[in-house]
């Protein structure tokens, strides 16, 4: 299971990727107020650390910057094998479901845009994914993170079962 202890964002080599930008218009007495909402994923592929955040502002660059700052406060360490994930998993959030399946070397990242951003940010090179249900990027990202936090490595499974790692 992924650990949710505080991860220092300053010591990591984080790369950011904008998943979606949404223009929001609020109708008020004096006219229309326009603002932008940005959904951003950041990660360090070498460390297996990834996070997401949302930022809102009157201009796009400020919204992206706020999203990056929010993502730095929401980092997860993910259990991975060398180039893929350890086992198949299904993540849920709202009406969204994301299935992640390990793939052999040379397969690449088979994923839609939202899930692909998360997979490349965390450093997974070979994975098969399928997004089921909603296409809302916010729910798809949260379902993907739910799936990633369910991943366990051999040592954790062996400890849960009370066996040695070689017995599995």
In order across it, which strands form the biggest sheet? 1-2-3-4
Q: Given the C-alpha coordinates, what overall shape results?
A: elongated
Mind telling me the C-alpha Rg? Answer: 18 Å
The CATH topology of the largest domain is Ribosomal Protein S5, domain 2
**Distance linking N and C termini:** 17 Å
Proportion in helices? 25-40%
Low-confidence stretches: none
How many separate domains? 2
Average pLDDT, to the nearest integer?
91
| E-strand count | 8
Give the biggest beta sheet.
4 strands, antiparallel
Quote the beta fraction: 35-45%
Number of helices: 4
Structural class: alpha+beta
CATH 2nd-level architecture of the largest domain: 2-Layer Sandwich
* CATH class placement of the largest domain: Alpha Beta
Give helix and strand order, one letter per element, not per position.
EEEHEEEEHEHH
Pfam family, one: Ribosomal_S5_C
Keywords: Ribonucleoprotein, Ribosomal protein, RNA-binding, rRNA-binding
GO molecular function: rRNA binding; structural constituent of ribosome
Function: Located at the back of the 30S subunit body where it stabilizes the conformation of the head with respect to the body.
Description:
The protein is an alpha+beta fold. 26% of the residues lie in helices and 36% in strands. It is elongated.
Topology readout:
Blueprint: E1 15-28, E2 31-44, E3 49-57, H1 60-72, E4 75-77, E5 89-93, E6 96-102, E7 109-110, H2 113-122, E8 127-133, H3 137-149, H4 154-161
Parallel strand pairs: 7-8
Antiparallel strand pairs: 1-2, 2-3, 3-4, 5-6, 6-8
């Amino acid at each position: 299971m992924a650990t949710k202890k505080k991860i220092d964002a300053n010591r990591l080599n984080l790369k950011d990727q904008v998943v979606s930008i949404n223009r929001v218009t609020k109708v008020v007495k004096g006219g229309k107020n326009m603002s932008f909402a940005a959904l951003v994923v950041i990660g360090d592929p070498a460390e297996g650390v990834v996070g997401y955040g949302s930022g809102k502002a009157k201009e796009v660059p400020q919204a992206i910057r706020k999203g990056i700052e929010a993502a730095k406060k929401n980092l997860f360490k993910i259990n991975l094998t060398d180039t893929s994930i350890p086992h198949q998993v299904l993540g849920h959030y709202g009406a969204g479901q994301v299935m992640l399946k390990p793939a052999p070397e040379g397969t690449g990242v088979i994923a839609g845009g939202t899930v692909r951003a998360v997979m490349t940010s965390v450093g997974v090179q070979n994975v098969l994914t399928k997004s089921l249900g909603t296409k809302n990027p916010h729910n798809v990202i949260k379902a993907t993170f739910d799936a990633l936090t369910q991943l366990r490595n051999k040592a954790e499974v062996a400890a849960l079962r009370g066996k040695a790692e070689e017995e599995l």
